[in-house]
From TrEMBL:
One Gene Ontology molecular-function label: methyltransferase activity
Domain Methyltransferase type: 96-194
Gene3D superfamilies: Vaccinia Virus protein VP39
Name the record gives this protein: Class I SAM-dependent methyltransferase
UniProt entry keywords in alphabetical sequence: Methyltransferase, Transferase
Alphabetized InterPro entries for the sequence: Methyltransf_11, SAM-dependent_MTases_sf
Pfam families, alphabetized: Methyltransf_11
One BP annotation, GO: methylation
Primary enzyme class: transferase
Enzyme Commission number(s) of this protein: 2.1.1.-
Length: 288
């Protein structure tokens, strides 16, 4: 078992099964219930697989057949990210993958020539950072993996060229603190990108979605999964608050997710239901 000692803060990062464990004891205690609930829900939902082919196919093929629609959307977001948002960056750039899960995005970025670094709270071998072992036979060297919380990242100032919240920004507790910490780790002129976080036109719709989810989780999994109050969703007002607090500007990108996604608002209106979520990509560039 290897370990790194930080000369500045005296914190020791232990490397276990290839994952750098960068959660201090107080953070482990704070997130323990959340991680326990989240892992149980993900397992119940059939996340992960025993097959290496499952991981190697993501996000383009879900060989489990359980979440094909979700992975189809992830694939379109990822393709848009690489073709339109990272297109002006150099191959070899350092990309911080925040909320990396099993590491599929870091794997794809590594194949494309970037130098990704995966960060997540979960380190298990099925749906967390441990699952990235399936990629090591396809890469010259497996990308670094850190078990850490976003508002307390174990990296130097300006260490990365870009950071991507990988379907994870809605899980942060304090969006201003998390975004500020992420900006710290990105170089001047670098990008911070929020991908695959639900957006609503109305605050009431987001709150209703969260209430529906809590009820469904309680009924299906025996927990409301609300031990920690997370952001949950985005609205234009929340995005404006971030702009004001951090002196940034969001460029909004709208990938095409298919006709089925495009007509969801109309279908919901005709059926008298709340507005459905929309998914966009938000890009901010770090100023001097």
């Amino acid at each position: 078992m290897d370990a790194w000692d930080c000369s500045a803060c005296k914190f020791r990062i232990v490397i276990y099964n290839g994952v750098a464990q960068a959660l201090p004891p107080e953070s482990i205690a704070h997130h323990a219930r959340f991680m326990e609930d989240y892992e149980r829900i993900r397992e119940s939902e059939g996340r992960g697989s025993e097959s290496e082919d499952f991981y190697l196919g993501l996000p383009y093929r879900d060989t489990s057949g359980r979440h094909r629609e979700q992975w189809r959307m992830r694939a379109r977001s990822y393709d848009y990210l690489v073709r339109h948002l990272l297109d002006g960056t150099d191959r070899g750039d350092r990309i911080l993958d925040l909320g990396a899960g099993n590491g599929w995005m870091s794997f794809r970025l590594a194949l494309a020539g970037y130098r990704p670094c995966a960060v997540d709270l979960l380190a298990n071998d099925r749906d967390g950072l441990g699952a990235a072992r399936h990629y090591q036979t396809r890469l010259p060297k497996l990308f670094p993996r850190f078990q850490a919380e976003i508002r307390r990242l174990p990296f130097a100032d300006g260490q990365f060229d870009a950071a991507v919240f990988n379907a994870s920004f809605h899980y942060v507790e304090d969006y201003e603190a998390s975004l500020r910490e992420t900006m710290r780790c990105v170089r001047t002129g670098g990008l911070v990108i929020i991908s695959d976080t639900p957006w609503y036109a109305r605050e009431e719709s987001g709150e209703q979605m969260l209430a529906e989810r809590r009820t469904a989780f309680q009924r299906t999994h025996g927990t409301a999964a609300d031990s920690i109050a997370t952001l949950g969703y985005l609205t234009d007002e929340r995005l404006r608050r971030m702009e004001d607090a951090l002196s940034i500007h969001w460029d909004v990108h709208r990938p095409w997710y298919g006709l089925k996604w495009a007509v969801r608002p109309l279908v919901a209106k005709l059926r008298g239901r709340r507005e459905p979520s929309k998914f966009r990509l938000y890009v901010a560039r770090k100023g001097a």
